[in-house]
Amino acid sequence: MKNLSIYKISKFTALAAAAFLCFPLANAQSPALPPQKRQPTPEKVLAEHVAAMNSCDWSRAIAQYADDAEFMMPGGAVVKGRKAVGDLIGNFLKPRAQGGWCGLKLVPEQTVVIGDTVNVVWRMEAPFLAEPYRGSEAYETRNGLMALQVTTFDTAAMKLKP
User: Fold this and answer.
1) What are phi and psi of 77, to 5 degrees?
2) Percent of the chain with pLDDT over 90
3) What are phi and psi of 109, to 5 degrees?
4) Among 67, 85, 86, 142, which is least packed, fewest CB within 10 Å?
5) Contact 85, 71 (CB under 8 A)
6) Residue from 133, 116, 115 nearest 124 by CA
7) How far apart are CA 21 and CA 93, in angstroms?
8) Which one, of 160, 146, 157, 162, lies nearest residue 68 by Cα?
9) What is residue 91's three-state secondary structure?
10) What domains can be seen in the chain, in order of their start residue?
11) Residue 40 CB-density burial (10 A; 0-12 exposed, 13-18 middle, 19+ buried)
């Protein structure tokens, strides 16, 4: 897989994927990374991730990622490292008016845990969506943190209200 910068990833994803959705941080400084917060089980890692994303809480979301975390998206784009994942999620959690997706509510519909991996089929709902958007993700955890996230999230497939 290619290791791509956030800027190059935006070409692959038309803002997709949490960024699944990728917009470059034009001349902006990334905030300092928050301390990591380990969870006792893979299920708790997922629960914390969902709560953080649904509340658009960047610090809480990034506290879940390992230093060497990777984020794999449709089209083969890969983001490597906690800082790069933080930039990606920071862009995703921006208000809608700024090109982000804050306001999406991630609702797990089916969860299967195998070892330290949590596999989820989910739907996303939001006032700006014409209909719920469905996808899936796999979250590989290690020592209470997110080590790898693989997503099907693709903003180009979302149906937005006019």
Assistant:
1) -70, 135
2) 81
3) -105, -35
4) 67
5) yes
6) 133
7) 9
8) 146
9) helix
10) 2-23+38-153 (3.10.450.50)
11) exposed
Global pTM? 0.81
∠ CA 18-153-32, rounded to 5°: 15
Burial class of residue 24 (count of CB atoms within 10 Å of its CB; 0-12, 13-18, 19+): middle
* 71 phi and psi angles, rounded to 5 deg: -130, 115
What's the token pair of residue 134?
A: 């469905």
pLDDT in tens, 71-114: 999 999 999 999 999 999 999 999 999 999 999 999 999 999 99
What does the CA dihedral 53, 55, 58, 61 come to, rounded to 10 degrees?
-40
| DSSP helix, strand, coil percent of the chain (3-state; round to 5) | 30, 35, 35
Check if the beta carbon of residue 148 is closer than 8 Å to that of residue 116: no
